[in-house]
Amino acid sequence: MKKVFIKGFIVSSALLLVISCKKEEPVTAAIDVNQIKEEIQAKENEFAETYNSGIMKNIGYFADDAITFPQNNQPINGKEAIIEYLKSHIDTVANTKKVSFTTNEVFVSNDGEQVVELGNYEIKDSAQAVINSGNYMTLFVKKDGKYYSLRDMSTSNSYK
Question: What is the pLDDT of residue 29?
Fold first, then answer.
C-alpha cells in the first residue's frame, strides 16, 4: 500500500510540475487592418486638404525625427525642416492645382505600433486634368495613440 501511495505521489507531482511549467502564449490584441487603413487615409486626406489650402502648418502628420526623401532632392531631416521645405514648394500646387493621396495597402506590425503604407498621388489642375501622378511609401509609428510619419518617399510617373 505504501508503494502505491508513493508511486501515486510521484506521478501526481510530475504531472503537477509539467502543468505548472507549461509555457503560456502571450495575449495579443487583434489588429484591425481595415480600421488602420482608414485611419492612415484620414491622415493623408488631412495632409492634402492642408497643403491644398496654401497654408502649410503642423497638422500632426510628421514625427519630430521624421525624414522625407523628396523627388530630385536631398533628404530633409526633422519635422520643422520638412514643413519649411513644403512651405517653400507650396506654390507649385496650391491655388490652381490640387493634390490627393490614396492609401492602397497597409502592412501593420504584429503589435500595431508601425505601419508601412503604399499609395499613389495625383495632382490635378483647375479643369480636373491629371498633370502629375506617382507613388509613395510611408513608414508610420504610433506615439500617444496616434500614427506619425517617420519616413516617406515618393516617385513621379512623369518622365519629363
Answer: 67
